[in-house]
Write the structure tokens for this entry.
Amino acid sequence: MLKLCFGRFGVDMAKQRIIGIDVARALAVIGMIIVNFKVVFGDQGTGWIKSIASVFDGKAAATFVFLAGVGLALMTNSAIRNNDMDRLKTAQKRIAKRALFLFVVGISYIVIWPADILHFYGIYMVVVLLLLTLSQRMILVATGSFVLLFPVLMLLWNYEAGWDFNTLEYLDFWTVEGFMRNLFFNGFHPVIPWTAFMLFGYWFGKQDLHNDTFVKRAFWIGAVAFVSIQILSLLSVSLLSGGDAMTAQELSEILGTNPMPPLPAYMLNGMAVACTVVSACIILAKRFPDSTVVDAFNKTGQLALTFYVAHVIVGMGAIEVIRPNQMGSFSIVFSVLYALVFSFLCILFAIVWRKFWKSGPLEWIMRKVTN
């Protein structure tokens, strides 16, 4: 049984596992599939489908990273609280090995999937590993520091360096300078500031997630924060642009909630969404523990690593083989519909697979390699 990031999460002492976390992970993976499929296949057309699909941009991935932080907390809470250094060292070694595993897996297929998050993910984990024993207040300070450091770096460095934004190709990725710049500053999910999502998730996971009062409060705070940030962002752009479309577009890059560049409005928005979604899933899964739907998403979340890699290798690969000349020019309807069908097949696979095995295929390999 995996207790970290992609598998089941352990809980302290005799407490029951929090099913809602796996449910939230399933939703995050499905959201990432929708976003990535429309980026790769195309989003031609307009209308309500495109508007709804755009809601997932950057938010699903943020929730995915947030959940990893929750997993790290649940894996280490007992050892830290009891000052059990032997258990903590064992957990730290396992985290370090899994961070390396994910980094290598991500890099190994980045040629076919440049927007991979796994190699970034591995570095986030290393950063959190170094900060595991900080007080909860200092964890929040570290979270805020990562968020605020990015705009400072943008003043010092050129965010567009290395990019051809017309093709979304990073021209000098395989040079030392380009790789490090992409990894830490201006890649799809740069360590600065994206590590803040995992740190915030780590803080969240150190709270009592069995406490209904805390979880409900977290849900409402997250929801209100999300709506407030969206409104403030839109109003700021509208008022400051004075109705000029070009000025509004430029201001949206600074005050908007788009993931690139990941400025504070986006980061806070992503944290709010993650907190809201995870809290809602914990509440619903606890209220409907015998629900077939909850059980299906629970099993799907336990195979998140497998499905993340499969959506690239199998999901994207199949269309590239069948219709290579249409890549990037499909309609938004096709991209979203295909993402939903693929996600449904993932859910069915998870239900069947979990009847016979406790871990997903890649989750099993990670456990064997890193334990």
About this structure: The chain is about 70% helix and 0% strand. Residues 208 and 214 are 7 Å apart (CA to CA). Confidence is low (pLDDT under 50) at residues 1-15.
